[in-house]
Amino acid sequence: GTEFAHCAEVVKRIALAWPEVAITLTHNGRASLTLARADARRRAAAILGDDFLTDSRAVEASAGPLRISGHAALPAHARARSDAQYCYVNGRFVRDKIIGHALREAYRDVLHGSRQPAVCLFLNIDPALVDVNVHPAKTEVRFRDSRAVHQFVFHAVQRTLAAPVQAAAAPSL
C-alpha cells in the first residue's frame, strides 16, 4: 500500500506537468486513476480537486528569462503539511528550498503558524541558469541567481494573493 501510494504520487506529479497526455494508473488489475487529455487547469482540478481551483488564484508573471504560471490557493485551502505544493522548473517537479522559502514569505501575512500553502506552479527559466544535477533523484536544483528567482516567485505569488477578487459581471436586463 505504501509503495503504491508513492508510485501514485509520482504519476500525479508527471500528470500535472503533461496535461496533454492521457494517463491511466492501474493497480492489481484495477484502474485507480484515469486522466483524459486536458488543459492545465482541468488537469489540476482532476488531480488536486475542484475545491483547490475554486479556492485559488491564477498566477501569471514574467521578467527577463523567468516566467511563472499556475495556481496559488487562498489561505483557507492551507494544509498542515507541504504535500500540496507542486512546483516545477522547466517541466521538472522539484522540492526546492529557494522556491519553498519564497512561497512561505509570500503567504507570511495571510498564513499563521505552521500552515502550508497549496500551490501548483510552473517556473520556466533559461536552462543555462539552473543546474539540475544537484540531487540523485533530480528533485533539487541550483539556480545561478537564486536571489533573483526567490524575489521573482515571491513577488508573483504575493501580488496574486493581494489582487482584489474580480466580481462576476451583473446580467444585463
Any overview of this molecule?
- The protein is of the alpha+beta class.
- The strands form three sheets. It has a five-stranded mixed beta sheet with strand order 3-4-7-5-6, with helices on both faces. The chain has a two-stranded antiparallel sheet with strand order 1-2. Strands 8-9 form a two-stranded antiparallel ribbon.
- A hairpin with a 2-residue loop joins strand 1 and strand 2.
- Helix 4 runs parallel beside helix 5.
- It is globular, with a radius of gyration of 17 Å.
Order of helices and strands: HEEHHEEEEHEEEH
Q: Identify the quaternary structure here.
A: single chain
Rg (C-alpha, Å) = 17 Å
Kindly report the average pLDDT value: 90
Strand content: 25-35%
Low-confidence stretches: 167-173
Got a strand count? 9
Spatial arrangement of strands, main beta sheet:
3-4-7-5-6
| Molecular shape | globular
Sheet with most strands: 5 strands, mixed
Distance between the termini: 57 Å
